[in-house]
């Protein structure tokens, strides 16, 4: 048995030496995993390493909390139904500066750290950009020493894993083990009881005040699990608190002894299902009730927790908002507004007006979309069944609000109908965005154009009534994960040129500007790219068996697959190139590898068919000897944070080609630019700001802008057939979808796509933008044949991407919405 010198296991984080770290790992291998160095599996070793590293964090987490308490600091609670964390180990090591030390320690133990890191599965408790943004914000909050805490759900099943079977997406259960996750500290003693269902009895309380009683509820218990979130340097370690659901009955021996054991178990399963799984964004009708319960479960646990913490500091309820900020990550947690009102009015017996002032001063709302179906609405009937008291509260909020609306717009008799929380058309529904706006002091979009469209098109009435509430906070990403950790060769090169300040101050990347044309620097830059491209080529070979040319232009489109993101536009371009080679004998100027990755929502047949189309096109083209090294198409399965970390450092070209006016911001565009990819993009979301920052010369833009598309829509004057008739190249590409060129084995498979373009109005304007896209891709080829010019632009992209650090975004929220200060 190895002698273990330290008990308890280590460690004063930054003074950790390899002896101490090694002992901690061996300690956990023995006592937490019940194994030995000799017998341990890779999985056990990984677990022991993570537990040893967690010990370092726990110490700092406790110290951080103490510091916040001593300063009686204002706290921010970031409420989100989704957090897409990715792997944690590598990120923690990077932030604590322990990567080298641990690698050395592992070497001594005869273990490869890389292999250990590959053992960890991605924490994918999210479906898309909103979830990853939340994870970047947590990293930035901790780095900026700000008391900001994530609150979410500990789903047993996070986002599905994607396999590609015969080119079709197949969904499998995700791998993140929430039961035995080494990063989570469970706190079963801090349980919260959450009421649902039941009915409300009118009643009178103190001073004959109307005080309805919510009774006959069913209770679900919420157990908190804390994940330490380390900022850069490790001074501040905040927490992400995730709740899991437990049955209240399991704790009630009475029921188990009351002769109805099976009934009790059934109820237990029913309650625990609340945190069972993450729902995909397009939740179906049958799952609606469960999704509502989940959203309520999150906000109810959170509000109870916040209140408990606040009261423990000895604060007066009336000062609650001075000490507390709640950010609602889209409308999913907007019920927090009704729940906070219920808590203040029913439980703390505050009067309505005071409660409302406190609630509004506390809550702020971020919208993350322009897709109309994505705006949440709850059928009133369902809502009343699950949350009868909250419905009453919402009615009261609405009643008072519409009174204000009538006073404010006496001549606009439709204003109350347009602005009501309750929509009467198409079955009565609660409009959650309206609740979020009315109950918040701040409403923001996530890029300049998005925020403007929210004001002008989505919520014009509210923007008119409360102009001071609306603002923009352009998204950002953490350069620590997406550049420092994901791309070590480039990160080292940058640091060797300008020092390492950029890791915590991304704006200093601008110092690279002067290196952009430096031939020595360019040479080294090219070496990092070659290295990364070869690694990705190896990975593609391992996963798909496909050999790709690492010297070809890597053209990358990685994101959720959805019609509005227009993977189809990219495919039409590929088809165009293919036919130009095989029919016109026109080889492209530069060889290209088109790399796709992304998941489709399980209930989105159109997106799923696009995935199949990507794969089928790949199959035909990759097999065709006529296109040889000139053209390849790859789709990598199971897109997520870890795969993105492999692809992004190797990308030459970043495809950001959504129809203008549909992508709220995009954040992949920022990650790619920060790593030196050039963007081909529409004037949509934060592409516009990226182009402003890096300069129009260093960005390929094309396509109609949002205003023009809106105009064509309103006038009903866009006709895909015009473009089809006028341009034989467009016709030739589009016709392939009507033929069986890419579906010999399943004839007619892609005809629905053809029909959506040609017979159903091409809702996302593919044909309108195709010609300009093809022309712009030609400019891309042109530039790629001049490596020095390409590299210069790529380096300028990195140098000018500082604005897109989530540190900047979080500072803007902190200053103008949260009034949150660093506590050092
Ligand atoms: C939801 C749904 C649900 C129904 C089907 C289609 C659909 C499409 C989009 C969504 C939006 C989900 C919320 C989300 O993740 N939004 C993303 O947030 C990112 C961070 O702000 C932003 O960069 C992306 O542009 C935005 O799509």
UniProtKB/TrEMBL annotation:
It comes from Desulfopila aestuarii DSM 18488. This is Alpha-1,4 glucan phosphorylase. GO terms for molecular function: glycogen phosphorylase activity; pyridoxal phosphate binding. NCBIfam families: P_ylase. It comes from the Bacteria. Allosteric enzyme that catalyzes the rate-limiting step in glycogen catabolism, the phosphorolytic cleavage of glycogen to produce glucose-1-phosphate, and plays a central role in maintaining cellular and organismal glucose homeostasis. Phosphorylase is an important allosteric enzyme in carbohydrate metabolism. Enzymes from different sources differ in their regulatory mechanisms and in their natural substrates. However, all known phosphorylases share catalytic and structural properties. Coiled coil: none annotated. Pfam families: Phosphorylase. Keywords: Allosteric enzyme, Carbohydrate metabolism, Glycosyltransferase, Pyridoxal phosphate, Transferase. InterPro entries: Glycg_phsphrylas, Glyco_trans_35, Pyridoxal_P_attach_site.
